[in-house]
Amino acid sequence: MTALDDVRPPAAPARRGDARGRASDLLTGPLRALLALLLRTALTLLGLLTLLFFLVRLKGDPAGVLAGPSATPEQLDEIRAAYGLDRSLLAQYLDFLGDTARLDFGTSVFSGQPALEAALAALPATLVLIFATMVLSVLLGIPAGMALHRGPRPVRVVLSGLLTLGQAVPAFVIGVGLSAVLAVRLGWLPAFGSGTAATLVMPTVTLALFAIARTARMVDAELDLVEQHDFLRTAAAKGASERRVAWRHALPNAFPAVAAALVVETSYLISGAVVVEVLFAYDGIGKRLVDAIFARDYPVVQASVFAIGVVVIVINVIGDALLRALDPRTGRAAA
């Protein structure tokens, strides 16, 4: 073999190809998943805004809805000019998107306060209610799920019936029952209002019963999956008690999936919070929304729906990110 035969080709083209490969891997990996998540979020928000824009116009001329049935033609013309309702529907839609990008939903028809400010003023009360509900759901739902999975048969039968009842009975029925007993008959708690710990109890319990039942069911289902792993059989074979295997080995391995599901479940609680807030006159954003609908205060309606939608989207994004972090297979599947 001559020296000419031993000459190697230059490595520069290979390095360029490697760089392209690494860039491609980056685009098909976490960056691509992030871009897909941002795109879904943007499309969801755009869909929400579009739905919100046309829902306000379902009953016809918004000027007539705002002014009421006794408005004169001159008053209607003034309202149309003030809110830009005399322009084409496409122009109104583009104006609405532009105003939303500036977080400008106009002013409340009745209070004169900026609509978004009026909506956001009630948001902390709703977040407190949701947080208290989730705390109660975790504190009671996880032990209930363990008992449902590992408890004696009579306990499991009774508990399964109670959990089914908690998921089946509507929140307003539970709320009316609690109010009739704890507020009207016994006088232990105020029936209406917000701002104090006492007024938070019944709305939280009403909303939490469904969440507790869902959490218990999730824990039970995840434990079924975890117990298929060999390390639990190994722990039991080494002499660990059934209780120790369940609490020290099975539950910690099931909890990450349960935690990710709980974050997503939080977004569903917001819709339930609307009913509970109205029932107990709890001054959260759900009650603010319903009050604005009945008062025909559509700037506040739009601002409230926008705020609720953004909160739900943020919660779902957090839940999706948490699920990807806890289970990388989810991110690879999405990519």
Automatic annotation (TrEMBL):
<dbReference type="GO" id="GO:0005886">
    <property type="term" value="C:plasma membrane"/>
</dbReference>
<feature type="transmembrane region" description="Helical">
    <location>
        <begin position="188"/>
        <end position="213"/>
    </location>
</feature>
<keyword id="KW-1003">Cell membrane</keyword>
<keyword id="KW-0812">Transmembrane</keyword>
<protein>
    <submittedName>
        <fullName>ABC transporter permease</fullName>
    </submittedName>
</protein>
<keyword id="KW-1133">Transmembrane helix</keyword>
<dbReference type="InterPro" id="IPR035906">
    <property type="entry name" value="MetI-like_sf"/>
</dbReference>
<feature type="domain" description="ABC transmembrane type-1">
    <location>
        <begin position="123"/>
        <end position="319"/>
    </location>
</feature>
<keyword id="KW-0472">Membrane</keyword>
<feature type="transmembrane region" description="Helical">
    <location>
        <begin position="157"/>
        <end position="182"/>
    </location>
</feature>
<feature type="region of interest" description="Disordered">
    <location>
        <begin position="1"/>
        <end position="21"/>
    </location>
</feature>
<feature type="transmembrane region" description="Helical">
    <location>
        <begin position="118"/>
        <end position="145"/>
    </location>
</feature>
<dbReference type="Pfam" id="PF19300">
    <property type="entry name" value="BPD_transp_1_N"/>
</dbReference>
<comment type="similarity">
    <text>Belongs to the binding-protein-dependent transport system permease family.</text>
</comment>
<dbReference type="InterPro" id="IPR045621">
    <property type="entry name" value="BPD_transp_1_N"/>
</dbReference>
<feature type="transmembrane region" description="Helical">
    <location>
        <begin position="300"/>
        <end position="323"/>
    </location>
</feature>
<feature type="transmembrane region" description="Helical">
    <location>
        <begin position="254"/>
        <end position="280"/>
    </location>
</feature>
<dbReference type="GO" id="GO:0055085">
    <property type="term" value="P:transmembrane transport"/>
</dbReference>
<feature type="transmembrane region" description="Helical">
    <location>
        <begin position="34"/>
        <end position="56"/>
    </location>
</feature>
<keyword id="KW-0813">Transport</keyword>
<dbReference type="InterPro" id="IPR000515">
    <property type="entry name" value="MetI-like"/>
</dbReference>
<dbReference type="Pfam" id="PF00528">
    <property type="entry name" value="BPD_transp_1"/>
</dbReference>
